[in-house]
Amino acid sequence: MDYVYGPGRNHLFVPGPVNIPEQVLRAMNRNNEDYRSPAIPAMTKTLLEDVKKIFKTTSGTPFLFPTTGTGAWESALTNTLSPGDRTVSFLIGQFSLLWIDQQQRLNFNVDVVESEWGRGADLDILESKLASDTAHTIKAICIVHNETATGVTNNLSTVRKILDAYQHPALLLVDGVSSICALDFRMDEWGVDVALTGSQKALSLPTGLGIVCASPKALEASKTAKSVRVFFDWNDYLKFYKFGTYWPYTPSIQLLYGLRAALDLIFEEGLDDVILRHKRLGTATRLAVEAWGLKNCTEKEEWYSDTVTAVVVPPNIDSSEIVKRAWKRYNLSLGLGLNKVAGKVFRIGHLGHLNELQLLGCLAGVEMILKDVGYPVKLGSGVAAASAYLQNNIPLIPSRI
Amino acid sequence: MDYVYGPGRNHLFVPGPVNIPEQVLRAMNRNNEDYRSPAIPAMTKTLLEDVKKIFKTTSGTPFLFPTTGTGAWESALTNTLSPGDRTVSFLIGQFSLLWIDQQQRLNFNVDVVESEWGRGADLDILESKLASDTAHTIKAICIVHNETATGVTNNLSTVRKILDAYQHPALLLVDGVSSICALDFRMDEWGVDVALTGSQKALSLPTGLGIVCASPKALEASKTAKSVRVFFDWNDYLKFYKFGTYWPYTPSIQLLYGLRAALDLIFEEGLDDVILRHKRLGTATRLAVEAWGLKNCTEKEEWYSDTVTAVVVPPNIDSSEIVKRAWKRYNLSLGLGLNKVAGKVFRIGHLGHLNELQLLGCLAGVEMILKDVGYPVKLGSGVAAASAYLQNNIPLIPSRI
Amino acid sequence: MDYVYGPGRNHLFVPGPVNIPEQVLRAMNRNNEDYRSPAIPAMTKTLLEDVKKIFKTTSGTPFLFPTTGTGAWESALTNTLSPGDRTVSFLIGQFSLLWIDQQQRLNFNVDVVESEWGRGADLDILESKLASDTAHTIKAICIVHNETATGVTNNLSTVRKILDAYQHPALLLVDGVSSICALDFRMDEWGVDVALTGSQKALSLPTGLGIVCASPKALEASKTAKSVRVFFDWNDYLKFYKFGTYWPYTPSIQLLYGLRAALDLIFEEGLDDVILRHKRLGTATRLAVEAWGLKNCTEKEEWYSDTVTAVVVPPNIDSSEIVKRAWKRYNLSLGLGLNKVAGKVFRIGHLGHLNELQLLGCLAGVEMILKDVGYPVKLGSGVAAASAYLQNNIPLIPSRI
Amino acid sequence: MDYVYGPGRNHLFVPGPVNIPEQVLRAMNRNNEDYRSPAIPAMTKTLLEDVKKIFKTTSGTPFLFPTTGTGAWESALTNTLSPGDRTVSFLIGQFSLLWIDQQQRLNFNVDVVESEWGRGADLDILESKLASDTAHTIKAICIVHNETATGVTNNLSTVRKILDAYQHPALLLVDGVSSICALDFRMDEWGVDVALTGSQKALSLPTGLGIVCASPKALEASKTAKSVRVFFDWNDYLKFYKFGTYWPYTPSIQLLYGLRAALDLIFEEGLDDVILRHKRLGTATRLAVEAWGLKNCTEKEEWYSDTVTAVVVPPNIDSSEIVKRAWKRYNLSLGLGLNKVAGKVFRIGHLGHLNELQLLGCLAGVEMILKDVGYPVKLGSGVAAASAYLQNNIPLIPSRI
């Protein structure tokens, strides 16, 4: 019937795509519609207004591209930069690596600042580069808010402070793919010029929307940016925004209704409470990892990620075996270690529409798998540590009080 | 948007209605159809054939009533008995109580054999009644295979042995609502005359089908049974079976497609493996209860139920508070204590389309709730006990090896 | 993939089950829930309140039985009457015939008033029977509002007038299966004591809810009615209404949410506008039949039905062939002629969630089929007649003005 | 509940997005999955193999981009051409215009061959250009197979013949957005180098997949094409094809399952029968237009399109009013006239999962609207003409014989 059957629910704990709420599945369960009827623009208007809230911006302009995070990256770069422009980009894991690769292929002059995988962006180097760049050759700072491969969250507020300290005009381009709607993110306050995310991450939708938000300064930059672009051109959207029809080409009707439902759910829970829930889930996961006697791939607490935890396995264990076993025996989907950390870490995604008992079920599964592969874990230890914390911190569900 | 919102999945651990597999939800997500077209009878034919397999009968005749378990009871009784007929019925909990109430209101002469709630049917009394009933005044033995209120499984094979020992012709009518498709049940081998279940139990469908299966002896009895019946009359179905159109009145198209999908899933996993999975889930739950230092409402191991566990709380705790808290704080649905055991037990349903990690998430939740209400549980202890057992017993998922 | 594949949508024009709106399909596309949580009673309360509106009653008490129309009949009868009670019942087609059969099998003393199929209930005979029944031996008048087999609508307001004229206390029991939510029906104004419908008719839901509404007088009668009943007993519901938990046994969660959505749609369109839409669809269909030179099975205009039209075919044509051909060649589902009119009529159901262009597509199909089977129809003639009427009468869609 | 409510089904007759079959909606009604588990690559493998069949190619390499038709265009161009390359492009309507605009913005040297809107590509000019291009400066011929704005189908087989006659090595790039899966298209036989379509057209899926198929010659060209590309780069896919993991970035799980279901439906009906069905629907539509006394925007029969018909309205009528009225009064979605033909034509899309009775309902609606806006149409005339043709040509549904 399906491609691979297993009894009971699949426990989806990769850091994306994530679990879709039933409410969103329902909203998307529909036939196509004429996107040129008055109904779709009317809904789109509410979406564009509301999507700004998840970026915490009032001055930004959002774009809903029918694409993935990779396409959203391309849109952010090509609309604001010209070939040959110098970018400072932080390489701290597989996804920042891929973004840098894209920047290079798009012919920017990429000044790569590399850190050990497991560490955050080296902001001291950023500072020294800005300090010496009195000629303002640096056109953009490209940084992932949360590196999904290692579970590292960068401090964007500090990035802004450094830029301000040197009154440097470089644009601040932020990959918020595994952060927005889950981690504290403040586009206006932190002076982010382009922020972007993908629908299949903390918004808990299917893949298919690359959501990009541009500051007024970024929009201004787009007027002179010479990078070749058509599909990802903001200007094509802006033209249709003015017409009030919004769409330069056919949108996915289903994803629009899905986004409407997803935003409604987030606002019903409260965006700040959603972020607090992610903090709880992240903390609980880290307590479990500690109780198992394993190391978090993230070196320091300041970089801990509340959306994904990369767990380092002992040298005698192949982390891919853990992921394979999770799927083959427990109907549990965990994230692989990628590139430099392949075989060395496995990842627990704890983002999106998820609650504490789902996570505890996952942690109980990981314990059994660790034992399966020969690691001397004490069964129940991680769950005990996590639930001791959770039991003190889970709030009542507001609508049920 | 919905009536009561909570983040993440609801953890549904009441002993019915239970979790519906995505495959079944998909199969039911459809418009109505003309049930008189050739398509519906063609599908119905496969359903009637395949539904016999879940009763383990080849000689039985199944009926798919658009009703609930209560209606299925009524169908079983009114088609086989006449007003005034003597039944021997075992009262061991709320659901056997309700069935007995129905028997009395249908004007049978009910010989009630009561046990303490938490104990199984008293088969010694059955034996003595049969022994003394040389005139064969007893027309039917009515017994629940699994009492959902207390988590007690009766031994049907012994009932059959006793009947055979006395060569007693009484019909054996079995409520298999919370057993069929989950516990070992053998209609032909155990000489069950009418067995029945509801779609929302181990079949993991929505409520709406009362599935009744009649032995040749029961069909024979229906020819002379004088109880008034129309909607629940087997004969109306048999007439349409002969026509090959199958339905005396409009069936639910969606439930038929859903049943098709549910049966396909069960056969893909293998009915015996489904039963083994329930045994694993039941055992794991009982180990957790023991680890928490709590008592199973079921007095003896011989009656332990692999589909529902009723957990006795200490006298100073109100079990309703546990159920309420589960729902208000953890998005977890547990079963209330009913009638005599109201406030004294809460119930964990572990039947239907469910896997081990789902159960462990539930058990972790129960631990936190126990602590919430002041019971001195060691967090993680139940999960540890359950997963120690599970880690040794969960098989690989066959389709993924 | 499915049982019988055909390209494009199935054109469902049987008089039930009917087309389900996408909004309702979406609302029902959900996992099971604990029906004992606070959420389900809260929703049920709104359902019971709102369902009264479709019966146009403020004093009635509604019951949502997990059953079909046949079960709803049984509930109406057994709760209000005692074995041996005299009913006056009108036999005017297959469904009134089946209801009468049920009344007889339930041991009432049925006084059958038969009409030619195609004619309405003979109210002159009713009058004479009431006139002579000064002893009030007649306990109930049983009448279908709309006979689905022949497309005949009875005049309930006249029935009430006759009863009042003789100040006769007989209960008025009405089968509104193919009328309620589609035809003008006024429970309170017409003094109907029990009215009932099924979810798969004009409510445009799947089969599975038998909706019964009882007047205060009917409720009073239920206190002394001696018919045996358990599953269909109103009293079991009333008990749980008082508790505020509403359900004596497990309801279908999906149908409750579906009913909520269905009622919302009806109220959004406006019940009276829904009824007007049915009048338009009925009129258009009859104009087409006339244009084809065919006869409506319904003899007189006063009985014309706005939910189903039975079309009489010429003697040399077998109407079953038309239905078969519709399905085999045009993916169109029409209603068969039943019993006395088998082979002589085919039926076009035009009820539920349906609009004018859907009907015109059906009529165009019927024209082609008539030609297929050798009837000398002028293609386009029926559509022309119907659309000439519709073009003058379809209103703008209010939400789109 | 929804953005704009209207009773009954929406009649969706824009030339995309089109009606989605229930089977496909069901297949897509699912949670996200880990796309790195073995299940997704296993399914993807079947998709890539089967998708070649709809292009009628065995040597082509397909790519499933998470994008729209506009993105698919960009992929076709940037992978095969370098900035400054000369393309010959035919401007015959709004969509070819947009593609030409894209080519210009991507810095190709576009040699535009314009026709009157309503006429096909001028192949005489193509011939003369090729004849004089002995230096082979023309690198690609860009042509839409079917211009969706005017309902014009170009003759690709002649294009190939001309190319062959001059043994010209230019690549042949074909926009098959509104043709593939609906019109006769033969990638290998016609020597098409890149063909592309979008999921929301004849494949009857939601928007979100840009399906591009490249010939061996196109793949070879991609090795030296210097256009900047990352997201749309074929090479990133080819790398993952070799790994057997297929996806360089997260695909839409739902669209993959949807595509699987859509292809299954097309193969079950038979691709050639699907194309024949479109020929029937196109012919029937044109017969209706003729019967109404209106002109087809397409000038000559050789260019008639079987997927969309643009109907020219008399000068005193604004075609936008027709589209508006269709939506406001009849719940019918028609296509607007675009750009040069705005106000002058309205479009009837007749592609995708659609059958004859659906079309006849639409035609009956158009007749009423024409009357609404003052055009002296004879109601029923178009339906009569269309159904006279259809009644002779619709085959029995194979699975129902």
From TrEMBL, chains A, B, C, D:
<feature type="domain" description="Aminotransferase class V">
    <location>
        <begin position="20"/>
        <end position="297"/>
    </location>
</feature>
<dbReference type="InterPro" id="IPR020578">
    <property type="entry name" value="Aminotrans_V_PyrdxlP_BS"/>
</dbReference>
<dbReference type="InterPro" id="IPR015424">
    <property type="entry name" value="PyrdxlP-dep_Trfase"/>
</dbReference>
<keyword id="KW-0032">Aminotransferase</keyword>
<feature type="modified residue" description="N6-(pyridoxal phosphate)lysine">
    <location>
        <position position="201"/>
    </location>
</feature>
<dbReference type="GO" id="GO:0019265">
    <property type="term" value="P:glycine biosynthetic process, by transamination of glyoxylate"/>
</dbReference>
<feature type="binding site">
    <location>
        <position position="347"/>
    </location>
    <ligand>
        <name>substrate</name>
    </ligand>
</feature>
<dbReference type="InterPro" id="IPR024169">
    <property type="entry name" value="SP_NH2Trfase/AEP_transaminase"/>
</dbReference>
<dbReference type="GO" id="GO:0004760">
    <property type="term" value="F:L-serine-pyruvate transaminase activity"/>
</dbReference>
<dbReference type="GO" id="GO:0005777">
    <property type="term" value="C:peroxisome"/>
</dbReference>
<dbReference type="GO" id="GO:0008453">
    <property type="term" value="F:alanine-glyoxylate transaminase activity"/>
</dbReference>
<dbReference type="Pfam" id="PF00266">
    <property type="entry name" value="Aminotran_5"/>
</dbReference>
<dbReference type="InterPro" id="IPR015421">
    <property type="entry name" value="PyrdxlP-dep_Trfase_major"/>
</dbReference>
<dbReference type="InterPro" id="IPR015422">
    <property type="entry name" value="PyrdxlP-dep_Trfase_small"/>
</dbReference>
<protein>
    <recommendedName>
        <fullName>alanine--glyoxylate transaminase</fullName>
        <ecNumber>2.6.1.44</ecNumber>
    </recommendedName>
</protein>
<dbReference type="InterPro" id="IPR000192">
    <property type="entry name" value="Aminotrans_V_dom"/>
</dbReference>
<comment type="similarity">
    <text>Belongs to the class-V pyridoxal-phosphate-dependent aminotransferase family.</text>
</comment>
<keyword id="KW-0808">Transferase</keyword>
<keyword id="KW-0663">Pyridoxal phosphate</keyword>
